[in-house]
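User: Before I run my own analysis I want an independent prediction to cross-check against. Here's the chain; please return only the structure tokens and, at the end, one sentence I can use as a sanity check.
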Amino acid sequence: MLSKRIIPCLDVRDGRLTKGIKFKNNIDIGDPVDAARQYYEQGADEIVFYDITASAEGRDIMIDVVRRVAKTIFIPFSVGGGIRSVDDMRQAILAGAEKISINSEAVQNFPLISEGAKAFGSQCIVLGMDVKKVEKTAKTPSGYEVVIHGGRRYTGMDALWWAKEAQNLGAGEICLNSIDADGTQDGYELSLTRMISEAVRIPVIASGGAGKPEHLLEILTNGKADAALIASMVHYRHYTIPEIKNYLMAHGVKTRLQW
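Assistant: Structure tokens:
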């Protein structure tokens, strides 16, 4: 059995760590560099960094903050927000990122996935998907729609179709975020995650809704996710990463031991 990954997520706005609920009412909760260092020292498997307003504001990612975070950690580091070209990807990698997460721009420019995979390898390209539950229609037969620009723009694109298409285009991983569950701490969107995980061959990271270790156990087993993104439960110090991993291992889920 492959080890399941536990991945803290740093949502960053104006250079500060922020957290909201369902993509709204974000509040400042600290310094992303300090948070990244803390989670690295606790034994996080990876760190994800999102500049959450870059795409909506049409600006580049805050590369200086990316560089500062990268200098403090020595684990895989995924970066997203405002990535619009292969050159943008290259700049993020040069600043210390191992993986590039593309979301809004990938929806608007499908070839960007293939171009990134060709330039840096599929293992470097993560498709970020922000998904909202909707009525099942001919356009959205799965009942889930892709939303871009930080939850501001509905695309009419079916989430299941997009996951498969992105895989075919060369994405090496999918980070699947449920807008409905985001920040609620009530649990991940199980049906959505299992549906996508069963439909693709590439790893799926579940995101949105983690509030206690039981939620991770459910999504990593019944939801069939390969990894779990966490935010509120560690940002607000409800749990530490060792506590989460120990719980999972006690319930039969293999995780990477803290070094």
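Sanity check: The chain has one domain: 5-250.
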